[in-house]
UniProtKB/TrEMBL annotation, chain A:
Residues 391-404 have a biased composition (Low complexity). InterPro entries: ATG13 (IPR040182), Atg13_N (IPR018731), HORMA_dom_sf (IPR036570). The lineage of its organism: Eukaryota, Metazoa, Chordata, Craniata, Vertebrata. Residues 96-195 form the Autophagy-related protein 13 N-terminal domain. Residues 306-322 have a biased composition (Polar residues). The keyword Cytoplasm applies. Its main location: cytoplasm. One of its GO terms (cellular component) is cytosol. This is Autophagy-related protein 13. PANTHER family: AUTOPHAGY-RELATED PROTEIN 13 (PTHR13430:SF4), PTHR13430. Residues 266-325, 371-405 are annotated as: Disordered.
From TrEMBL, chain B:
The lineage of its organism: Eukaryota, Metazoa, Chordata, Craniata, Vertebrata. Transmembrane segments: none annotated. Belongs to the ATG101 family. One of its GO terms (biological process) is autophagosome assembly. GO terms for cellular component: Atg1/ULK1 kinase complex; phagophore assembly site. GO terms for molecular function: protein kinase binding. This is Autophagy-related protein 101.
């Protein structure tokens, strides 16, 4: 009963709850943008900073939140939920977290609305700021870019936890008692990041042996190390055992977010998610996470519209693929990372794919590299009788060739050396450089001599030794002059 | 903008201890005490301590108060910023105040140096105490009454190789996530907080020396455990300016 509450207090309380809900959404979404947030403290109150905290308002987010609330406030049985999910460039998606702002019936009649409740809501927002950085999705979101993006969806009503997989964990951010009920803010987050996906038509029935023990994918494996160390922090991933998983997902596939994506690739176009533009490819290696973000008007945030139709799309993305394939054991891709050096890992496809339409195909190297072909494991055999200088000279001996090493990846441009004039001499510096860049072989190092077999060398040795023995006195005299 | 009514005077609740009393004295009665323990590598000490201290102070800082003539006051705005750790797979949020950050870094730096010093086997603890001042009449000095005490016990480990260090980065990151969740849980119990002071008493409750934010009065102290296992108090740092002196 709220008859004890004055009308002014009631109005204030409703306003506080409404703006608290909007600010909560802002904090959560901004924490998943993939960039560091920084706002300034101000000693002079500006009048527009709710709860005395500098939290920027992204207009689209406010718009989506208001649309979801549709003029209502969180109440018993009507919770405001922000769903954070991950979507790969292949189209697979996975729900990561669900933030819930709920109200229960436990009232605190004695509490002062305009003072205590307000301050406690401010404290709760600070707690939310802290907690949004410690769930696993934060580190994933800092590294979003080419391989995957983080999306959000706001809905109002009953909390739906089914998308989080088995064994999800919950963290309570905090509670604030009010005269009309107790506000609770909590987060349920997925811990099993080995996610399930299927591919249509690949019912080859192959069942690959599941790796022991492993639900341990990841939270510890996603690091915020600088890119140079990124590969060393990616520990080996092991897929969940077959058959384990949430009810609406089918088959285990490894989630290998960001793992050695050697090939730049396009992200999905705007088809499914409202208003997400396609982005140019960018190389994945060696760039900071915040440079890998897509260029959108809002600096790298990908939004899924909160309208019912697009939220169904989100569900459809994850459900349709399982609908296509009936076999319970579909293609299983296992990507293991093997350490080949201090900071170098080498992904191996341990499974040879029958065809190339596999999940996360872009993470796999172009040629399925088995260990036998791995140059790090089996260095190429050195040629038997190669002259040591052989490799350092261009053996084709193409003098005057102006193309040098031709390679598909190189683009030929005119070579214009700086500070050189070509008016005096018939040959300019550039031409000179090109011509003599590939000088011809010295005759003494020609192939004929280099290709002399070891046997011939050995045969000529006794003769050479005999000659030297004859001249031994000369050698001795020479040595004495040196001493 | 929300204007707050004039605060009521209130008797101070928690137990008492003298200001500048013997360092390491047991917290007084009714002072809420929380203890956190972490095991870190030497180079992670600073970042781990800063993460915890900043998280606590985020919750224990408000905007600057501006009192108005009729006794009401308005509150400034607290900004926040993300901090990425270099030696730990971890990120945290701190109050956007360079002065506060400098003060914490100074204290943590001294703690780290003391931990490295001779006689230490890598164990120590750093404490963040929130207190209220109670003015006493001459010739008695003001009393400092702690109402919340956070203690972080640190154990410095030495690691042999790069692989262990990498694992340590991740493990310490996970541990710090747990600590943040613990801190938030304590904060949201909404237990005793000093009442909002009148203008004349604001310096007894808050540190008003910073120009952009206003944390509750706090002090940081640390102790290093020497190799014999006994506590050796090294320094008591006062991080607020004491305006009164006999």
């Amino acid at each position: 009963m709220d008859t004890d509450l004055s009308s002014q207090d009631r109005k204030d309380l409703d306003k506080f709850i409404k703006f608290f809900a909007l600010k909560t959404v802002q904090v959560i979404v901004q924490a998943r943008l993939g960039e560091k947030i920084c706002t300034r403290s101000s000693s002079s109150p500006t009048g527009s900073d709710w709860f005395n905290l500098a939290i920027k308002d992204i207009p689209e987010v406010t718009h989506e939140a208001k649309k979801a609330l549709a003029g209502q406030l969180p109440a018993v049985g009507r919770s405001m939920c922000v769903e954070i999910s991950l979507k790969t460039s292949e189209g697979d998606s996975m729900e990561l977290e669900l933030w819930c702002l709920e109200m229960n019936e436990k009232c605190d009649k004695e509490i002062k609305v305009s003072y205590t409740v307000y301050n406690r809501l401010s404290l709760l927002l600070k707690s939310l700021l802290a907690i949004t950085r410690v769930t696993p999705a934060y580190r994933l979101s800092r590294k979003q870019g080419h391989e995957y993006v983080i999306l959000y969806r706001i809905y109002f009503g009953e909390v739906q936890l089914s998308g989080l997989g088995e064994g999800f964990q919950t963290v309570r951010v905090g509670t604030v008692g009010t005269p009309v009920g107790t506000i609770t803010l909590s987060c349920a987050y997925r811990i099993n990041l080995a996610f399930m996906s299927t591919r249509a038509g690949e019912d080859n029935g192959a069942v690959y042996p599941s790796v022991e023990d492993s639900q341990e994918v990841c939270t510890s494996s996603f690091s915020t190390s600088p890119p140079s160390q990124l590969s060393s922090s990616r520990l080996s991933y092991q897929p969940a055992a077959l058959g384990v998983g949430s009810a609406d997902m089918g088959y285990p596939v490894l989630f290998a977010g960001g793992l050695h994506a050697a090939h730049p690739h396009q992200l999905i176009g705007p088809g499914k998610e409202g208003g997400v533009p396609p982005v140019p490819s960018q190389p994945a290696h060696g760039t900071q996470a915040d440079q890998e973000r897509m260029c959108t008007p809002l600096d790298g945030v990908h939004y899924s519209a909160a309208t019912p139709s697009s939220s169904e799309d989100t569900e459809t993305v994850s459900n349709s693929s399982e609908g296509k394939c009936g076999s319970p054991h579909d293609l299983l891709e296992t990507i293991f990372v093997r350490k080949v050096g201090a900071f170098v890992n080498k992904p191996i496809n341990q499974v040879t794919m029958a065809n190339l339409d596999i999940p996360f195909a872009m993470f796999a190297p172009k040629n399925v590299e088995l260990e036998d072909n791995d140059p790090m494991v089996n260095p190429p055999d050195s040629p038997e009788t190669e002259s040591p200088l052989q490799g350092s000279l261009h053996s084709e001996g193409s003098s005057g060739s102006s193309t040098g090493n031709t390679h598909d990846d190189f683009v030929m441009i005119d070579f214009k050396p700086a500070f050189s004039k070509d008016d005096i001499l018939p040959m300019d510096l550039g031409t000179f450089y090109r011509e003599f860049q590939n000088p011809p072989q010295l005759s003494s190092l020609s192939i004929d001599i280099g290709a002399q077999s070891m046997a011939e060398d050995l045969d000529s040795l006794p003769e050479k030794l005999a000659v030297h023995e004859k001249n031994v006195k000369e050698f001795d005299a020479f040595v004495e002059t040196l001493q | 903008m929300v204007h707050f009514p004039p605060p009521r005077r209130q008797m101070v609740g928690p137990g008492r201890t003298r200001c500048c009393g013997p360092p390491g004295a047991a917290p007084a009665m009714n002072c809420r005490a929380e203890v956190l323990e972490v095991s870190v590598e030497g180079r992670q000490v600073e970042e781990a301590m800063l993460a915890v201290l900043h998280t606590v102070l985020l919750h224990r800082s408000t905007g600057k108060f501006h009192y108005k003539k009729e006794g009401t006051y308005s509150i400034g705005t607290v900004g926040t910023q993300d901090v990425d750790c270099d030696f730990i797979d971890f990120a945290y949020v701190r109050v956007s105040s360079e002065e506060l950050d400098r003060a914490l870094r100074k204290a943590v730096g001294e703690f780290k140096d003391a931990l490295r010093g001779s006689g230490s086997d890598g164990m120590g603890q750093i404490s963040l105490e929130f207190y209220q001042k109670k003015k006493s009449r001459w010739p008695f000095s003001d009393e400092c009454i702690p109402w919340e005490l956070w203690t972080i016990k640190v154990n410095v480990v030495n690691l042999a190789n790069e692989q262990e260090r990498q694992i340590c980065r991740e493990k310490v990151g996970e541990k710090l996530c747990e600590k943040i969740i613990n801190i938030v849980e304590v904060m949201n119990r909404h237990e005793y907080l000093p009442k909002m002071p009148t203008q004349s008493e604001v310096d007894n409750v808050f540190d008003t020396s910073l120009k952009d934010v206003q944390p509750y009065l706090y002090k940081i102290s640390y102790q290093i455990t020497d190799s014999l296992g006994t506590s050796v108090t090294t320094t008591m740092r006062r991080l607020i300016k004491d305006t009164l002196a006999l």
